[in-house]
Amino acid sequence: MFEHIVLLKFKPDVSTAKKEEAVMQVYDFKGNIPGITEITAGINVTEEKEHMQGYTLGIRVSFENQQACQDYIQHPLHQEFLQTIGPNVEGIIVMDYPWKGQD
């Protein structure tokens, strides 16, 4: 298994509706991009405002393996997503790591 975690910081003038649209686009990846085993995405609702640092959208994608994650990065649906949200984003954090899961 391989995890891909992304945090997005949207520009201040981006509406909640636009952020929610991005979440829906992410959920469209499941079943349409090979190698994805699980996906979650959502708008940050933490009460720990001092730790948000402006990041308002979180995405977690689980893959069968690291190669599936690498293939996902180049997939046309993912590339289209990047083109759509790119003008609205002012910061991004990405973390990838392998894990064995719970047996």
Automatic annotation (TrEMBL):
Occurrences of domain Stress-response A/B barrel (ranges): 2-97
SUPFAM superfamilies assigned: Dimeric alpha+beta barrel
SMART domains: Dabb
Membrane-traversing stretches: none
Lineage top rank: taxon: Bacteria
Oligomer and partners: Homodimer.
Name of the protein: Stress protein
Organism ancestry: Bacteria, Bacillati, Bacillota, Bacilli, Bacillales
